[in-house]
C-alpha cells in the first residue's frame, strides 16, 4: 500500500511542478529542464563564483575608447558581506607612473583563465607614450557567456550604482551566438546604465547619478542603429548611488519591458513588421534586413548572456562635451589623446571617487543579487 501511495503522490507533485516554458537556456549553469516560472539562474554573491562569472581581460575600451583596463583582480571585483563589488582603481598603483607613458603591456596569458578576451581595438597589447598613455584605470567586467544564456524570461538585479566623476556602470545582455551577424545586427539589451557624476548637467538637466537608462541596440550595421526609438530614462532626485534598486526586465515573444522597483520605465512591442519596421529601416529598400527569416522579435528572439561592469569615460558621447560639472570634463570626445587628457585631470575627478573611504565603496557598483526566471 505505502509504496503505491508514495508513487501517486510523487507523480502528482511532479505534474504540478513543471509546466513547460517558452524560455530556452544554455550554458554550464543552465537547468536541464526549464519549468514555467522557475528560477533558472541566481547569484546572491555570498561567495564570488568565477564558474558563473567570467572576467574579461582586455584593454579594448568597449569599442568607445573607454579608459579602463578590465582585469581579473580582487582589488577590482570581489564579494563582501553578500555584495558583489566592481571597484575601479588606478593602473599606476600596480605598474608605477613611469610605466603609464613608456611601458609595454601584453595582457595575454597562458592559463585558460588568463587569456585576453578581446583583441579588437588593441585590446591585448599596448605601448604607452606621453601622448597616448596606457589605460589609466583598472576595473572589471563580468559575464555569464559560458555559464548561462537564455531566450525570454524575467530578470531582476538588485544593485546600487557607483558615484564618482566619469564612472559608467552597466548591467546588460549581449547575444550568445550573433545569430543575425555582428553588432548591432544581433541586438544588445541594456538593463541599466548610469553616470557616476553627482551633479552633472546637460542643458540644465541632471544626467549624473540622478538618471538611469535602459536601451535596446539593434540595426543592420553600426552606423544604422535604432536605439533612439528604444531608449528610456528614469530620474531619481535621491540618486541611484544612494540606495539599492531592483532593475527589471520582462522579455517575451511579444515584448520587452523595463522597470525599476516594479515601476515600468519603457517597453517595446513590435508589430508584424518586427524591429525592422520599428527601427524605421524599411524606408530604404537597398538595405538587406538581417532579421527577415527570424520572428517579429528578431534579433531579440535568440539567447543572450549577462554582463556587469564599471567603465570609465570614453569618446562616444555617453559623456557629452557640453556638460557642466563642478569640475569640468577633462577631455573632448574628438581628442586623439583623450585618455591622457583624462589622466591629466585626475586632481579634479579622483577625489570624487573617494577610493580611500570604506575601501572605495562609493565608486563601486554593488550588486546584491541577480535572478532570472523562466516565463
Ligand atoms: C591586483 O591589483 C593590485 C592593485 O592595483 C596590484 O597591486 C596587484 O599586483 C594586482 N595583482 C595581480 C595578481 O595582478
Explain how this protein is built:
By secondary structure, this protein is an alpha+beta fold. It has helices at 2-17, 91-95, 97-102, 274-278, 338-344, 346-353; strands spanning 24-26, 39-43, 54-55, 68-70, 77-80, 83-86, 89-90, 104-106, 125-127, 137-139, 141-143, 149-151, 153-160, 167-175, 188-194, 201-202, 205-206, 211-217, 231-235, 245-251, 256-260, 263-268, 304-312, 365-373. The chain has a single domain, classed as Jelly Rolls, CATH 2.60.120.200. Strands 1, 3, 11, 12, 14, 15, 18, 19 and 23 form a 9-stranded antiparallel beta sheet that branches. Helix content is 13%, strand content 30%. A hairpin with a 2-residue loop joins strand 16 and strand 17. It contains 6 helices and 24 strands. The structure holds 2-acetamido-2-deoxy-beta-D-glucopyranose. Residues 73, 75, 89, 93-94, 138 line the site of 2-acetamido-2-deoxy-beta-D-glucopyranose.
Features:
9-stranded antiparallel sheet, 375 residues, alpha+beta, globular, 8-stranded antiparallel sheet, 6 helices, Jelly Rolls
Number of domains: 1
- Taking all Cα atoms into account, the compactness measure Rg is 22 Å
CATH arch. level architecture? Sandwich
Amount of helix = 10-25%
The unique ligands bound to this protein are: 2-acetamido-2-deoxy-beta-D-glucopyranose
Inertia-based shape: globular
What is the tally of helical segments? 6
Largest sheet: 9 strands, antiparallel
According to CATH, what is the topology? Jelly Rolls
Spans of 5+ residues with little confidence (pLDDT < 50)?
A: 1-12
